[in-house]
Amino acid sequence: xxxxxxxxxxxxxxxxxxxxxxxxxxxxxxxxxxxxxxxxxxxxxxxxxxxxxxxxxxxxxxxxxxxxxxxxxxxxxxxxxxxxxxxxxxxxxxxxxxxxxxxxxxxxxxxxxxxxxxxxxxxxxxxxxxxxxxxxxxxxxxxxxxxxxxxxxxxxxxxxxxxxxxxxxxxxxxxxxxxxxxxxxxxxxxxxxxxxxxxxxxxxxxxxxxxxxxxxxxxxxxxxxxxxxxxxxxxxxxxxxxxxxxxxxxxxxxxxxxxxxxxxxxxxxxxxxxxxxxxxxxxxxxxxxxxxxxxxxxxxxxxxxxxxxxxxxxxxxxxxxxxxxxxxxxxxxxxxxxxxxxxxxxxxxxxxxxxxxxxxxxxxxxxxxxxxxxxxxxxxxxxxxxxxxxxxxxxxxxxxxxxxxxxxxxxxxxxxxxx
Length: 419
Description:
Order of helices and strands: HEHEHEEHEHEHEHEEHEEHEHEEHEEHE
Oligomer: single chain
Shape: globular
Number of helices: 12
């Protein structure tokens, strides 16, 4: 015989809420019910954009229904007023701080309908206006990371892992979409595109009403940060996360401000560091690792630009000599200001690495014979430091392809990929 909890659990264990409109009343009622609120383990914060997108629901949505929508533009999400998102964030933070809700997982999603889908039909014209009508150009906007910051700080949360990036794109059954909706689309054109969905999610410990720092128990971070949210989260990661072991970090634009990490305040003893899509100085890069000399085992740098006078010739030997337990590295396409806009190359790499160090080394070249480029260098084994020192001697500026009339187009000189 099923208990009442068995019946209710599927409906409440994962609770989605927009924090605006009628959802504020639902949130308040849930927080006041001591039994139902205890069933909530996952809290998902997003508006109803997915229910307004033909890509997800598999048909053109009705513009006559009531939706809880976050007004948004390219700059971010509008906080609004009265029953707007700003009020909802404060309400939820207060409920979390009091321990009335105790989820173990939280996610915040910014679902962006493709602009192409807004041009489908009259209904989508109306939905576009719902999203943008209440957001004047002067409106205050935030990112999902700013929302997460408010909830973590004001809700006294104790986070153990953080992940920020592009979420999986949902899709409804589109097999009969054109056939079923052609009469509703402008000129019968039913072409639609997938959404962009950004998500910030974090795991929470069982400790609520946290009296310590929100990130003191953080052990895993995989995050894509924008410039506005970066200062707060970089401080949490490098100055407070004493238990952090695995860090994957992409910071867009934040490292160009000239402010440096204080190596004396850095606390994590990292085992793994992955940097991508980031521009920073050698000083900042090495400061990240200031307390990881004994613990660091793996590094990965891809699409990383060293700014100012910094150089990879300087960085590679310092890592090689300072981190004796390093056993794995992966280098993608990386750059430095002093060598221009092309990715650095390693000419002579195949001869500068001694034979005894080569087991475990993988080189991937791409391009044409007239301008071969080292696309990635990967190594796993006991000689990671030695190979990095040798790589430092090979670093050279990348070169553009020659003019088309100087290229050979015979079959053996076409684009290739080699070991």
